[in-house]
């Protein structure tokens, strides 16, 4: 047995091979756990990962454990599952979320060199004027918005995995640039000219290009191969479950209906950037696309049916972990009753936030809930 394997076994660390690992790298570098670049996504579970994963009894399942992250958002949970040696299927209906999972979870080898990255910012006749026409003077200066059009055209020449990684870095750069990290307000340019705010958060005054290059090394180092094939999907969860439910554990982190469920208003700009929408209207002060993609999970009128369909379609999956909070509809008791009606054993665990984080629904005093529903 190699020294590397021995160390991995003794320390119980996942044996990972970094994309850049070579024979010259030290033993420590080869087995040190890869780190997910910090995320800034509403409702992300970055801080709750040890708590959530403590409810998965890994000894019960054969290796590798097949893990579904049904509403993957930032991909923080999918990344952690990959880091723990699970075989991951990551899914989100938003393409901008899918890019994070495709770039950092499905992708185990492709990184982006500085030269490749430089080329993404070059002027090109292939660029559209989508971002410049929609968002100049709203979120960015005209030249910054135009740069996004160049980037979006140039990124197409990259192979799929590197393209997803590049888009993930850019999406993250854009949320750094905009105060509060989302696009549901129209104050970005005002804030970016306010010296007091810049002192507190210098990113809002930095050029997009600089933010991109500041982030690139963190993303490159996070690309790793745990020896398994992982998948990133970009589908409505119910459609995905209809086609496949062959997993050991499913983690569901739905939008918190009536709490902060409208992800398409918060991240519309990233989705427009990602999909290069041509068949949408752009409405409101923020120029968000219209009509939105349809999800049953974000409206009071449809959410109960959506959950019941999810339970029915996910029936073959032995263990479900479902994140929830105590300000959502349906409320915790009703949701528990819906889960019990499936015939599963249901536990309800609570995590109290120590400080304000994550926007509405994740504030001090609110509880993050984890339902653990098993078919045993
Ligand atoms: C609470 S967030 C997930 C946060 C994620 N766990 C993290 O740590 O970043 C909910 C996600 O569900 C996605 N979503 C909403 N409806 C969906 C559907 N029908 N199918 C798949 N994804 C959906 C949203 O786009 C959003 O990214």
Kindly describe this structure.
It contains 17 helices and 11 strands. With 376 residues, the protein is α/β, with parallel strands linked by helices. The protein folds into 2 domains: 179 residues, Vaccinia Virus protein VP39 (Rossmann fold, 3-Layer(aba) Sandwich), CATH 3.40.50; 139 residues, no CATH class. Strands 5-3-2-6-9-11-10 form a 7-stranded mixed sheet, with helices on both faces. Strands 1-4 form a two-stranded antiparallel sheet. A two-stranded antiparallel sheet has the order 7-8. α4 links the parallel β2 and β3. α9 crosses α12 and α13 packs parallel to α16. The longest helix has 18 residues. It is globular. It starts with a helix and ends with a strand.
List keywords for this structure.
376 residues, alpha/beta, Rossmann fold, 40% helix, binds S-adenosylmethionine
What is the structure about, briefly put?
With 376 residues, the protein is of the alpha/beta class.
Write the topology of this structure.
Elements: H1 3-11, E1 17-18, H2 27-31, H3 49-53, E2 66-69, H4 76-83, E3 87-91, H5 95-106, H6 114-120, H7 130-135, H8 142-154, H9 160-177, H10 188-192, H11 195-200, H12 208-221, E4 224-225, E5 231-233, H13 237-243, E6 249-252, H14 263-266, H15 268-275, E7 281-283, E8 288-290, H16 300-313, E9 319-325, H17 332-340, E10 345-352, E11 367-374
Parallel strand pairs: 2-3, 2-6, 3-5, 6-9
Antiparallel strand pairs: 1-4, 7-8, 9-11, 10-11
Helix pairs in contact: 5-9, 9-12, 13-16
This protein binds S-adenosylmethionine.
């Amino acid at each position: 047995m190699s020294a590397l394997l021995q160390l991995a076994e003794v320390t119980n660390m996942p044996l990972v091979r970094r994309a850049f690992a070579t024979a010259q790298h030290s033993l420590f570098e080869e087995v040190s756990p890869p780190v997910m670049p910090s995320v800034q996504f509403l409702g992300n579970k970055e801080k709750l990962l040890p708590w959530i994963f403590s409810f998965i009894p890994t000894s019960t399942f054969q290796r590798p454990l097949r893990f579904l992250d049904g509403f993957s958002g930032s991909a923080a949970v999918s990344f952690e599952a990959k880091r723990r040696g699970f075989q991951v299927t990551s899914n989100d209906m938003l393409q901008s979320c899918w890019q994070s999972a495709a770039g950092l979870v499905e992708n185990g080898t492709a990184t982006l060199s500085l030269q490749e990255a430089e080329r993404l910012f070059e002027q090109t006749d292939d660029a559209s004027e989508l971002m410049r026409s929609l968002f100049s003077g709203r979120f960015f200066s005209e030249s910054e918005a135009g740069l996004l059009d160049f980037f979006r055209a140039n990124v197409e020449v990259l192979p799929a995995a590197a393209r997803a990684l590049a888009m993930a870095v850019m999406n993250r750069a854009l949320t750094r640039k905009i105060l509060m990290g989302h696009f549901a307000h129209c104050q970005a340019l005002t804030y970016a000219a306010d010296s007091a705010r810049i002192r507190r958060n210098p990113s809002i005054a930095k050029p997009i290009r600089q933010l991109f290059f500041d982030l690139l090394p963190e993303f490159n180092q996070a690309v790793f191969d745990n020896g398994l094939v992982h998948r990133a999907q970009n589908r409505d969860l119910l459609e995905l479950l209809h086609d496949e439910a062959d997993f050991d554990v499913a983690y569901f982190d739905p939008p918190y209906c009536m709490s902060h469920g409208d992800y398409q208003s918060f991240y519309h700009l990233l989705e427009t950037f990602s999909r290069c929408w041509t068949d949408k209207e752009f409405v409101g002060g923020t120029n968000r696309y219209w009509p939105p993609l349809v999800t049953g999970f974000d409206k009071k009128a449809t959410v109960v049916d959506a959950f019941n369909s999810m339970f029915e379609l996910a029936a073959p999956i032995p263990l479900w972990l479902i994140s929830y909070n105590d300000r959502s509809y349906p409320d915790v008791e009703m949701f528990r009753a819906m889960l019990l009606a499936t015939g599963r054993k249901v536990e309800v665990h609570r995590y109290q936030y120590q400080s304000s984080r994550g926007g509405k629904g994740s504030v001090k005093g609110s509880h993050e809930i984890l339902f653990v529903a098993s078919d045993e």
